[in-house]
């Protein structure tokens, strides 16, 4: 199957630190690909390069067959790649509905801080979007009053407002209470799958990876150390030792070992 988003030999060093040391990755249309790996492995750097926030020093990025290496974030969004950040980028003094409406207005390229009135059509689309994310009950709340799970969903809803074909999410569950995590991912997976959006997400919670990823890429020192199905990758002793051992204790037969 042909790749929708592809990295070929991507390289970027910060001084002596090789944050990307020849990344080759082909993301297939429709798939959910999880990126795992220890802190500092280069996961965020990859997202930053794929979305135009960092310029690679070598290699190429292709989207739908066209090279987008070195394009600006705005141009990359326009082509159909959106992202969310580890820390949600909401306008804290605005309501959830206003945040969604602002994202829609920005997508249409007609919102201006000098003409800040939101059009009824944007609000209508915003409410529709929030409904899909189960966020209507929070529509009138200010963004700074939300719990972390709702904040993350609202942030991702803003990215979805841009109508991307690929969405890259940097740790969509970080900071979300353990009791809320699965519901948050369940919701965002349902919305993305029903909209046909391809997802790439950095994740430290292996239960989330196991349940929602079609494939897993393991990052280590700026390289992809393993790539495959969650079952295969998470069972790899090297991955268990170097990545999962840090995030999750090994499982015992018939149940989870020492998860407390
Ligand atoms: N702007 C920058 N300037 C200098 N060094 C940087 C910069 N961005 C990242 N690095 C370094 O590049 C390496 C990869 O960082 P990156 O944030 O991509 O890792 P990560 O896998 O996303 O880590 P984490 O899981 O902690 O978010 C790290 O050693 C980091 O310190």
UniProtKB/TrEMBL annotation:
Say if the entry is tagged with keyword ATP-binding.
yes
Q: State a GO cellular component annotated for this protein.
A: plasma membrane
Q: Per its UniProt entry, which superkingdom is the organism in? A: Bacteria
Q: Which CDD domains match?
A: ABC_Mj1267_LivG_branched (cd03219)
Report the residue ranges that make up the ABC transporter domain in this protein. 5-246
Alphabetical keyword list: ATP-binding, Nucleotide-binding, Transport
Extract the InterPro entries matched here.
AAA+_ATPase (IPR003593), ABC_AA/LPS_Transport (IPR051120), ABC_transporter-like_ATP-bd (IPR003439), P-loop_NTPase (IPR027417)
Q: Which Pfam family, an example, fits this chain? A: ABC_tran
Q: What is this protein called?
A: ABC transporter ATP-binding protein
The taxonomy runs: Bacteria, Pseudomonadati, Pseudomonadota, Alphaproteobacteria, Acetobacterales
């Amino acid at each position: 199957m042909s790749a929708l988003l592809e990295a070929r030999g991507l390289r970027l060093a910060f001084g002596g630190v090789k944050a990307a040391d020849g990344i080759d990755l082909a993301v297939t249309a429709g798939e959910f690909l999880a990126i795992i790996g220890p802190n500092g492995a280069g996961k965020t750097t990859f997202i930053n390069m794929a979305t135009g926030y960092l310029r690679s020093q070598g290699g190429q990025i292709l989207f739908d067959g066209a090279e987008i290496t070195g394009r600006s974030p705005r141009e990359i969004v326009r082509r159909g790649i959106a992202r969310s950040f580890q820390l949600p980028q909401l306008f804290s003094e605005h309501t959830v509905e206003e945040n969604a409406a602002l994202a829609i207005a920005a997508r249409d390229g007609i919102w201006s801080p000098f003409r800040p009135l939101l059009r009824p059509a944007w609000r209508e689309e915003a409410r529709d979007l929030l409904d899909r994310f189960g966020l209507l009950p929070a529509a009138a709340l200010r963004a700074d009053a939300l719990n972390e799970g709702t904040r993350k969903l609202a942030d991702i809803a803003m990215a979805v407002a841009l109508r991307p074909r690929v969405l890259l999410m940097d740790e969509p569950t970080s900071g979300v209470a353990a009791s809320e995590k699965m519901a948050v991912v369940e919701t965002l997976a349902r919305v993305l799958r029903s909209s046909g959006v391809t997802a790439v997400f950095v994740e430290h919670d292996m239960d989330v990876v196991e349940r929602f990823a079609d494939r897993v890429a393991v990052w280590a020192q700026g390289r992809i150390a393993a790539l495959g199905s969650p079952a295969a990758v998470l069972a790899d002793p090297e991955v268990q030792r170097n990545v999962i051992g840090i995030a999750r204790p090994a499982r015992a037969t018939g149940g989870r070992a020492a998860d407390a």
